[in-house]
Amino acid sequence: MNQPIIRVVDLAFVRYRTNDLEGMERFLKAFGMTVNTRIGNTLYMRGTDSDQYIYTTELTKTPGFIGPSFEVESMTDLEKVSTSFENAGDIEKISGPGEGYSVAMLDPDGYDVQFVYGIDKLPCLNTRDALSFNTGTKKGRTGLFQRPTAGPAHVKRVGHLILRVADFDKSMSFYQKFGFTLSDSVYDPKDDSQTLVAFMKCNRGAKWTDHHTLGLARRTPIAVDHTAFECLDMDDVVLGGNYLKAQGYQRAWGVGRHILGSQIFDYWRDPHGFKIEHWTDGDLVNMESPVTRVPAGEDGPGAISQWGSISEDYLKIYSEAVEIGPEK
Ligand SMILES: [Fe+2]
């Protein structure tokens, strides 16, 4: 395994392009994000947590996925990235809200990967409290009623993204240089040397972190598979889905519960056909957590969900949603 040069803290935001900024703003609001600001042709959308923005999209001729932006620990780490890679740019001031600094470079497939530090935080947005459940064995809620209001989900933060990659080993060793570490992987049962999907966490030592912040999938076409956003609780995912459906948007797959990562999920198509996920109740792991390697299949841990049968649509990449990196 490659020795990491730095250790990424978390996914900070994801960057897309669109040829319909108004249409995307409508969709993202219905998905449960809030406009922070629009600067020039770029829309900055925030969640209810304290990040200035978790999703950006800029007006270009064709839609596309530019790339992920990862938060690093220090300016020193930005310098390390900038000086350790031939194709890495210089440290630049970010022109978005909350400013901060970034270094960008193309990954082996041409995704424009950015490392960011020092973006100011905002006060969190008010939301209802997450619901507490009475279970068969524990009745903690007494004399209180479950009445979550209908409407868009309360998207808190960006959680992870899955990239489809052309050369799996090359991409794996690229991302390991930034501290990404296997949580679990799924291999081809017909050829166990072929990893199909690697779920990778940030190396935060003993601290708890999401089961996966980055996933790499050996699957064509080469495109972002999906980006994923954490919601308040299960009712939030379901009510948020009802709202998107009522607005005429298309569900890709959901609601269900994954196995690796355990999230309760609901996948949607944005107006360009990019898959975007609402999730809640994901696993937290650390560097002591067991790492498994399991065969893909209908049954067992290599299956994609514990409940919520997979839809045909989920496996598709729409032709409008294959562009990656900056506009050529
Ligand atoms: Fe996901």
What structural keywords apply?
eight-stranded mixed beta sheet, mainly beta, single chain, binds fe (ii) ion, ten-stranded mixed beta sheet, 328 residues, 2,3-Dihydroxybiphenyl 1,2-Dioxygenase, domain 1
Give me a quick take on this structure.
It is built from four helices and 20 strands. The chain has helices spanning 21-31, 75-84, 168-176, 234-246, and strands at residues 10-18, 34-39, 42-46, 55-59, 64-71, 92-93, 101-106, 112-117, 157-164, 181-188, 191-201, 209-210, 214-217, 224-230, 250-258, 264-269, 275-280, 284-285, 292-295, 305-307. Fe (ii) ion binds at residues 160, 162, 226, 228, 277.
Topology:
Layout lengths: L9 E9 L2 H11 L2 E6 L2 E5 L8 E5 L4 E8 L3 H10 L7 E2 L7 E6 L5 E6 L39 E8 L3 H9 L4 E8 L2 E11 L7 E2 L3 E4 L6 E7 L3 H13 L3 E9 L5 E6 L5 E6 L3 E2 L6 E4 L9 E3 L21
Parallel strand pairs: 1-4, 5-8, 9-13, 10-19, 14-17
Antiparallel strand pairs: 1-5, 2-3, 3-4, 6-7, 7-8, 9-14, 10-11, 11-13, 12-18, 15-16, 15-20, 16-17
Any overview of this molecule?
The chain is mainly beta and 328 residues long. The longest helix is centred in the C-terminal third of the chain and has 13 residues, at 234-246. The protein is 13% helix and 36% strand. Strand 15 (250-258) and strand 16 form a beta hairpin. It is globular, with a radius of gyration of 19 Å. The protein contains four helices and 20 strands. The chain has one domain: 2,3-Dihydroxybiphenyl 1,2-Dioxygenase, domain 1. The model has no long low-confidence stretch (mean pLDDT 96). It has a ten-stranded mixed beta sheet with strand order 19-10-11-13-9-14-17-16-15-20, covered by helices on one side. The structure holds fe (ii) ion. Fe (ii) ion binds at residues 160, 162, 226, 228, 277.
